[in-house]
Amino acid sequence: MSDEPASNRPPRTPRTPRARRGSFPKVIGLLALVGAVLFGLLPAGTTTAAAEPAAQPAAESAERAESAERAASDEVRPLAPASFTHPGVLVSQSQLDFVRARVQAGEQPWAAAFDQMMASPFADQNRQPRPRAVVECGSYSNPNHGCTDEREDAIAAYTNALAWYLTQDARYAEKAIQLMDAWSAVITDHTNSNAPLQTGWAGASWARAAELVKHTYGDWPGAGAFADMLRNVYLPEVIGGSHSNGNWELTMMEAAVGIAVFLDDAGAYDQAMSRFLNRVPAFIYLESDGALPRTVPGSGLDTPQEIVNYWHGQSTFVNGVTQETCRDFTHTGYGLASIANVAETSRIQGEDLYTGHVGERLRHGLGLQTRYEREAPPSWLCGGDITRGLGPVTEVGFNAMGNRLGHAMTNTQAYTESTRPQGSNWLFVAWGTLTHANQLN
């Protein structure tokens, strides 16, 4: 198992909770402004900025700096829609209908992808859930107390939810419900060093499964209890992010976004999307970033050497190189998959991130990694020594950037088509060819 060691985390800077920052000075300033206006002490046209205290508290200054950096991003942070689209976590109703028609007609690559999914242990109708109250996951799955069970039950729930919709056989929906109800009745916490990553992996799959069952099957008495589980056990663990390697936080934000959609929680959606848009530029480099990659506010990366070290020794930066390219392509693939999955959910919810810098970074990231998955790397890339193993992670991103938007992606296309049908990585990626191959909906 390739769980990430906690030792890879750079130092984390503690933050003051956002809700408490600078609240008292702002209240005093506002009262002073109101009094000044009432008594005619301010000239016409004076704005509310005049009421701000001249010297901001340190926490308020840090918040302003972070806000300024966010405002300088390539695109405006998307807000939650006025009402969420359901089903709307990774796959939409029209996408599901497209796939079902292709599978029923026996068309490729969907028919082979469907057969692959149905032959997997995740679709086994004899599967029994293995919940536990506390899932304890250490680095490299040591200890592994329920970690594998949780991830695989979550993927199995998503697998059965897809099988239900594509076959309209209620047995699969009931199996997904059995798995979800078993865990929501028991789990209370995730512990040890890999708890944030584990919660992200399982949470991403749980959200997809729950969204499909609730909004396409409907007969689920335990839906409220499952929502409580996601709200109280999973969302608090992932919503705050992590200053560890990029794939951690990107997967955590994928889980947070999916959970927010399922819960119709606009505040959580905005918070997760804001963090996601800060992390993507710090994971995939574009030459427009300048001489060095961007960093996430509060990451503790202050010098060029610290940044190079965080990028696993890579000091030559070109379009598409990622923060984990020189670690290995497997962990890089996790990050690329989550970027595509969040962008896909965002598009379904009405904000197309593929057309901005997120899509551009994803396109170049997929292109560089798929190129050197198939050919020898140059000496400037990781000293000419890379560790391959990208995995089944390209279908969603390639479909969006190559098929839907029409970008030439020769390397990504060659890799994607040669690895079809892309199935599951047994962590959180599952059935990309089935759901997103040649998908224009």
UniProtKB/TrEMBL annotation:
Keyword annotations of the record: Lyase, Signal
Compositional bias ranges of the Basic and acidic residues kind: 61-77
InterPro entries: Alginate_lyase_dom, Chondroitin_lyas
Entry GO terms, CC: periplasmic space
MF terms (GO), sorted A to Z: lyase activity
Alginate lyase domain residues: 150-354
Highest rank taxon of the organism: Bacteria
Region (Disordered): 1-21, 51-79
Composition skew (Low complexity), residue ranges: 51-60
Protein name: Alginate lyase domain-containing protein
